[in-house]
Write a structure and sequence with these properties.
The complex is a heterodimer of chains A (about 280) and B (about 260). Chain A is built from 13 helices and no strands. With about 280 residues, chain A is mostly helical. Chain A folds into two domains: about 1-55, no CATH class; about 70-275, MetI-like (MetI-like fold), CATH 1.10.3720.10. Chain A is flat and about 75 Å long. The two termini of chain A are about 40 Å apart. Chain B is mainly alpha-helical and about 260 residues long. Chain B has ten helices and no strands. In chain B, α2 crosses α10, α3 (about 55-85) packs parallel to α6 (about 120-145) and α8 (about 165-200) runs parallel beside α9 (about 210-215). The longest helix of chain B is centred in the C-terminal third of the chain and has 38 residues, at about 165-200. Classes of the chains: A mainly alpha (about 280), B mainly alpha (about 260).
Chain lengths: ~280, ~260
């Protein structure tokens, strides 16, 4: 922690002396160090609270206990199992909901007739939070896999369809005109005009959908589940083992960060060619 | 979109009409298990009964009050945090990374911890709803503050603004469109958080979410369907009112465009 505070001023004299590479490196290190100050302080506070027994252990598990629970669960493979189950639920939901959303978005975007018939209903349904669906889904689908996958699918459909629609609506008229002059077939129009022009928007949809899927999964697992990360937390809560709850939170946070990084990487890899224009 | 928005397009009514007709037909003809897929008339009956029931009104009222007070707390915190991170590079470096990391913890994962620390009562729900509104508001405010140009700040300096004036006459007004975007997003999240926390803490307190989730336990499908509609309607209504207020509050900006 001391090291972190002392190196939190990246524009140190040493930086001015070094080359630009060294200076850039020091700047990055400084940013990291500065960013770690607050977590270090919070961790210190946590330690102090545990040492001073400010709260009973059921309410405030020690960092050591959390770490121990984490390693135990990890070594027994239990944590990986929960993670794998949660991940497969998200994947199925993304696949089903994403497919339906793309279909809906493209149909509404490309055909004025479909838009006229479906759009008003879609707009109304899209206003309803997914959580509202969950009790009804429990009645129809029970509390097993079908519930999780259907809830996540519903959560995914709306952002995917909305962004697909927006992406198509924003295609410049001139591009469609050019395609018409070249007498493109529908497949060609899709591949050479619609997809490239709407790609950023489609990706935006994917990003929002992934985040929504993850949020919905955690909610449904907390509400009704017998496996998965959310279940681990409910279980820990019921046993009064808050260390399990904290492990669950850290895991959920780690997955959230990984998803965010992954999506950003994928976006710059897939849409990197667009950078050239700006 | 190409048709004139003034004239009503009847084609939009076809799909809901068909769905309703299909719903009425399959239930009337008993082609499906009517305990599971309840007839529309049953939902209507439940709706009328609920609307005449004061405890239903009370539940909705509790939820809306909870939603709005949590939102207000979160919005205030969000504007404060966003402004701080936006104005001070040092604060951004110290707090920003932690904020952006903690933000990635899916919202509902906080609820078990919050309920252990603050109990199952009103307080944990309130903090939870505030947290849900805080993120988007803070992000919006941050973006708004960061796009204030150096020349605008220069003018403020020339006028000799003190800190208070700087905040209330330059920073917040200049960032207001992005703050408004953050606020409207925060309102949506706050409502989701309200209903979600009432679902997850169903046995404690009163609220629309409690009523609906208890309907599930009692297998009262009519109530669930009606509750779902009310949840959607209240959320939509709140967003509409917010959009109105935003348009009025930012009216002065229209002069510029």
């Amino acid at each position: 922690m001391q090291a972190a505070t002392s190196s939190s001023h990246p524009i140190a004299p040493a930086a001015a002396a070094g080359g630009p590479a060294v200076r850039a490196w020091i700047a990055v290190a400084g940013r990291w160090a500065a960013g770690l100050v607050l977590p270090a302080l919070l961790f210190g506070l946590w330690l102090a609270a545990v040492r001073g027994q400010w709260a009973p252990e059921q309410i405030l598990p020690s960092p050591a206990l959390v770490w121990q629970s984490f390693t135990e669960l990890w070594q027994s493979g239990e944590l990986q199992d929960h993670l794998a189950i949660s991940a497969s639920r998200v994947a199925w939901g993304l696949l089903i909901g994403g497919g339906a959303g793309l279909l809906l978005g493209f149909a509404m975007g490309l055909s004025a007739t479909v838009r006229a018939y479906v759009r008003p209903t879609f707009d109304v349904v899209a206003q309803f939070p997914v959580l509202g669906w969950v009790p009804l889904l429990i009645i129809f689908a029970g509390i097993d896999e079908a519930l999780k996958v259907s809830a996540i699918s519903i959560a995914v459909v709306v952002p995917v369809a909305v962004n697909t629609l927006a992406g198509i609506a924003n295609i410049p008229h001139t591009q469609v005109e050019v395609a018409r002059v070249y007498r493109f077939k529908l497949g060609q129009v899709l591949r050479h005009v619609v997809l490239p022009a709407s790609a950023p928007s489609l990706f935006n949809g994917l990003r929002q959908a992934t985040m929504q899927a993850w949020l919905t999964l955690v909610f449904v697992e907390l509400l009704a589940s017998s496996e998965g990360i959310g279940y681990l937390m409910v279980w820990g809560r019921q046993l009064g083992q808050l260390d399990l709850v904290v492990v669950g939170m850290l895991l959920i946070g780690a997955v959230g960060v990984s998803l965010d990084v992954l999506l950003r990487r994928a976006e710059s890899a897939l849409l990197g060619w667009r950078r050239v224009a700006f | 979109m190409t048709t004139a928005s003034r004239s009503f397009d009847w084609r939009g009514l076809v799909l809901p009409g068909l769905l309703l007709a299909a719903w009425a037909t399959v239930t009337a003809a008993h082609w499906v298990d009517t305990r599971l897929i309840v007839p529309p008339a049953g939902v209507l009956r439940t709706a009328l009964r609920s609307l005449a029931d004061p405890s239903f009104h009370l539940g909705v009222l509790f939820s809306v009050a909870r939603d709005l007070s949590g939102f207000a707390l979160g919005a205030l915190g969000g504007v404060a945090l966003g402004t701080l991170l936006g104005v001070s590079r040092r604060a951004d470096r110290l707090i920003g990374p932690t904020f952006h990391t903690v933000r990635q913890i899916a919202l509902f994962a906080w609820l078990p911890l919050l309920s252990s620390w603050l109990g199952y009562g009103e307080l944990s729900k309130l903090v939870f709803i505030a947290l849900s509104a805080l993120y988007p508001v803070a992000l919006g405010t941050f973006e708004g503050v960061r796009q204030i140009t150096a020349s605008q700040a220069e003018v403020a300096r020339v006028y000799g603004f003190d800190r208070r004036q700087l905040l209330f006459r330059l920073i917040l007004p200049a960032a207001s469109p992005q703050i408004a975007t953050g606020l409207s997003l925060g309102l949506v999240y706050a409502w989701v958080a309200t209903i979600g926390s009432e679902f997850l803490l169903a046995n404690w307190g009163h609220g629309l979410g409690n009523i609906v989730i208890k309907g599930r336990a009692a297998f009262d499908v009519e109530l669930i369907v009606f509750g779902m509609v009310v949840i959607g309607l209240v959320g939509t209504l709140l967003n509409r009112v917010a959009a109105r207020l935003e348009a009025r509050a930012l009216h002065w900006r229209r002069v510029a465009t």
